Amino acid sequence: MKTVHPLLVRITHWVNALAVLVMVASGWKIYNASPLFDFTFPAGATLGGWLAGALQWHFAAMWVLAVNGMIYLAYGILSGHLRRRMLPISPRAMLHDVLNALRGRLAHDDLSVYNAAQKAAYVGAILLAIGLILTGLVIWKPVQFYALGSLIGDYEGARRLHFFCMTGIVLFVLVHVLMVILVPKTFLTMITGRLKNG
Amino acid sequence: MDSKLENHEGPLLGSIERRLFLRRGLTLGALSLLAGCDLTDDESVQKVLTAMSRWNDGVQAEIFSPQRLAPEFPESRITRPFPFNAFYDEDEAPVVDAGDYKLEVGGLVKEKKAWRLPELYALPQVSQVTRHICVEGWSAIGKWSGPRFSDFLQRVGADTTARYVGFKCADKYYGSIDMATALHPQTIMAFRYADQVLPAKYGFPWKLRVPTKLGFKNPKHIVAMFVSNENPGGYWEDQGYNWFSGS
After folding, report:
1. Looking at the 3D structure of chain B, how many domains does it have?
2. How far apart are CA B228 and CA B168, in angstroms?
3. Is the pLDDT of residue B84 over 60?
4. Which domain range does residue B247 map to?
């Protein structure tokens, strides 16, 4: 049996899933304290109980997200894993694969080979996470990271971009989970690394 | 801070509220994945979060630059009206009598004396148009004027090798900042707002204006200040908000 997902990828995947869950749920509570737009998130979907609690969760889990993400990226780049799995991405192939997916045609003979739509989605999620960390740094320390902030509209610009990156990640997670439900064997593979009868 | 804080679901991070929010967290399934934590022991989770908040205090002190200035803005960018913020409504802001007012200066300072308003007004003043950022997320730009706090600390012979400066306010608010921030050139004793004597709603007779910290680290209606090596905490900090809260 061949290894579909290396051990380090599996560990960082699940640590990341937990960190993103905590960051989004506590972030929604923080958003509710001073909403940018004309809506708030339902309290039941938030974490922390009140603003101070949500901030504690957010600023604790941010270390997990960032350190775990750096381990994943360092491994992915140095081992060649990212290059092999994610590249190249051709826009034409991506369109073709997205249309196929929408027609319910999900090719999954070899789970270690990503189609173009998957590659684009995974690379997109990585870029969104990097965007969340950079905009988050500007919101957290707008004076100390002023140079970075000046590239993205300072404090208020970073707040909006942080929100939009969060929205992107949440949409990614929804599609990602939907795909796992449609092809359930992928779930166990991300835990064991191997594929039964693969 | 802001009057909106009254809408927070728990006014205090008491043990009951804490238990409630952790139970709500459990329904999310977030905690079920936290390896190594006794999930039924809410106190241990809170201990981890508090420890992380202390760790973040240290990280913020490390990345705080004593020279890096908060951005200043043209007066055209000032937010009008500038929002009122406190843990009470605007009409409940304390009324401080200008004639009776005394600023007590104590702790690790050579000259422990009370300062009257005319003496304070006579100190050299600077102005700044800076952004006030609330822990809730909103921000507003305002203009504050007054003496540099570092000049005042020098004048009273403060031990600037001490770690903290603490403040007591006329409205039962209290707070404290680190010495590095106290000595920052943009940390001022704001006696004026928008070129007028600071009105009651903004903290008469003065507020500590610290553009390198969140709004709640800018105490208003200050009646006493002291230099200390023991962390004096603060009104919101003692309820769970991060102590350093730098910008």
Report:
1. 1
2. 13
3. yes
4. 1-247
Distance CA B114, CA A85 (A): 70
What are the structural domains, with CATH classification, of chain A?
Answer: 7-192 (1.20.950.20)
Inter-chain residue contact A49 with B24, CB threshold 8 Å: yes
Tens of pLDDT, residues A140-196: 999 999 999 999 999 999 999 999 999 999 999 999 999 899 888 888 889 888 876
> Helices A7-33 and A154-182 meet at what angle, rounded to 10?
130
CB within 8 Å: B52 and A25: no
- pLDDT for B28 beyond 50: no
The CATH number of residue B123's host domain is: 3.90.420.10
Q: Quick check: A28 contacting B, CB < 8 Å?
A: no
The per-residue pLDDT for B4 is 42
The predicted-structure confidence for B151-189, as pLDDT tens digits, reads as follows 999 999 999 999 999 999 999 999 999 999 999 999 999
Interface size A-B, in CB pairs within 8 Å, comes to 115
Look up the pTM and report it. 0.87
Residue B37, pLDDT score: 38
Within an 8 Å CB–CB cutoff, is residue A33 touching chain B? yes
